[in-house]
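[step 3/7] fold_predict: job queued, chain A
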Amino acid sequence: MALLRRLAGLPAKGTRVRARWISAVCALGLLWPVSAQADPLPPVPAPAVAVPLPVVGSTAPAPTASGVVEALGPLARSKVLGSSSIVVVDPATETTLLDRRGAQPLIPASTQKILTAVAALEALGPSARLATIAYREGQRVYVRGGGDPTLRRGKSTDPDSGGAASMRELARQISVSLGTDTTVRLVFDDSLFTGPKLGPGWKRSFPQAGVAAPVSALVVDDGRVRPGARSRVSDPSREAAKVLAGYLRGFGISVKSVRRGITPANAEELARVESAPISAIVQRMLTDSDNNYAEALGHLVGEEVLGEGSFTGGARATEKIVGEAGIDLTGVELADASGLSPRNRLAATTLTDVLTVIARGEEPAWAPVAAGLPVAGVTGTLADRFDTRATQAGRGSVFAKTGTLTGVGSLAGWVIDRDQRLLVFAIVGNDVRRGLRARDTMDRIAVRLVECGCR
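[step 4/7] structure written:
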């Protein structure tokens, strides 16, 4: 049975809406200090133009391959990027303008989240929501996790506006259904996700370091040991159940025990809270490069497509979805959904192929990815980049997913060039020894594409 039906009433795939224009993002100002210079940089601009999608039929002047090669020059061959691949594509004509070892499979780091995003949108549907549901059988109350990585404790925001559901709200609804002065045994059900809690090749220190929580179908506040902390608990499901128990007690319900279990098929639904739409979760995942959101989405895709909500299931299902869209997956090997695993392999051409499909509007369900790409100098993981005299021209005109691991740097997205032409690009560097210099080089490459016109 499909995942969304198994989650007791989650809506079927949402209507796919083709986004023809992504609105310009308002300027937020620099969030990090800029490098020491004689004069301060000007304020961060809003994106130079609204991003026109799809790009088919663009009348902006088209660049040439020779123009791109000349504009990038030695930057494209820089040894600071280690073993690297660079690809530039004009999606309006599907013309490859530069391909420097683009078919070479490399560790992609978090640019892999682009594939996770399109798989989640395709398999789950942009408008679907993830439900956390409470059931009752006799004296037992079951809380079943639906894989919502955005669930919060008591601070609830409006899911209809992209906000998060609240565990306190779930407790309130339960108390209304049961009444006060009631005694229950609380059972938490996280069985939707299976297999290891940490991804293949992940360091065991990741949860404590705050890189990612153990993956669970029931989690609150990203599995943090306390609100605002970086470190994550070893058992997010149990912690989430304890939080719920605390709120239930606050509403006058006595909770005798808290344990893990499976929700009986005949249990009666008491209450539910639902996440924002998948499209909003995907966009937040991309903008902030949120590893926990990515892994939850990957597991959900695995469960929906293959009936296997695990790292392996998510990786296989993502490959299946992307491959069926006509993307060349030669050399692709996926181990997780976040890009944290050093066992992942992607070619830069795979990234540009996916981005080209989105830019051309050929897979309407994938359109929300465009709004999730960080904007240089403005949002997400690009907010503190493009902050030097050499790179400032990219602010508001580069829209790209970042990727960083030890020895790995990557950047993939698109730019709006000086002629208002949208160009897709992907840069992946492995065996990188000087991460900050590599990051600056990637930013400079993107800026050259913004400035050149390339004819």
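[step 5/7] annotate
Residues 435-452 form the longest helix (18 residues).
The chain has a mean pLDDT of 89.
exit 0
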